[in-house]
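Bumping with the actual sequence this time:
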Amino acid sequence: MIGLRRLAAMHHQRSGSVCSVALIIGKGLCFGLLVVSFTPNQAAAADEATKLSSLSQPLSAHEGAAAPSVMEMQSVVAHRPKRADFERESASHEARHVADWVVDSGDNRKMPFVIVDKTDAKVFVFAADGRIRSAAPALLGLARGDDAPPGIGDRELASIRPEERTTPAGRFVASLGYNLRGKEILWVDYDGAVSIHPVITTNPKERRLQRLATPTPLDNRISYGCINVPAEFFEKVVRPAFTGTNGIVYVLPETKSAREVFSSYDVEEHARLQTASQPVPAQGASATVRH
């Protein structure tokens, strides 16, 4: 009996050991399966944490370098020069210089404007936005010069000597009105009795119509100071441009420079100076911009 019991005990002990080993192996397999099933989720969480961490970190110096470049480009675009649109109309360098300056600086105060080029004996009429309406030849004061004698507007025509018959240069606020004969004109300098008006043909000896028709400005100096233009040009261009509004007339100088008379500037040079004066953010600086 003792032998059988000891044998049974030994068998029970061996069975228990086998069960323990089996249990340990089972637990190991379950733990392994648990580890295998947990690892992808754990990897995804780690990957997501890495992404969030990278987003919360500041840009590197290399990445931050792009921001100043964008801001610098915006600064250049902001100071791109504005120009008058002459379309296909030929014009002197001085006329283009002044017209571009007017548009770029806004000196015309959103009003129509006229450029009178005395050297080329030509008149350009622009809309308020700087687009040309049309251009035409003009007759101008007999004498060269950019200044009118004091009080000349109050004198009789017969008392004005040939050397005093100048078309003064300068910037004038102009408006439509009438002369003493009741003819509609565009007053340029009311005190100086200077206006833009349809060509006068009362004195055939002056040949004003023929002078306007010649291709050169050599014979266009004949008036007492007023600016004569073709009648059709006045009716179809000047009058409509100034109806219901004032405007600006820029009479270009011929003995001085435009910069001296108007304090004008070259639009390209002005744009470069404006761009150069704008601070550019340092490399790696914050790209935050206040609007």
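The tokens above came from a reply further down the thread. Residues 2-50 form one domain.
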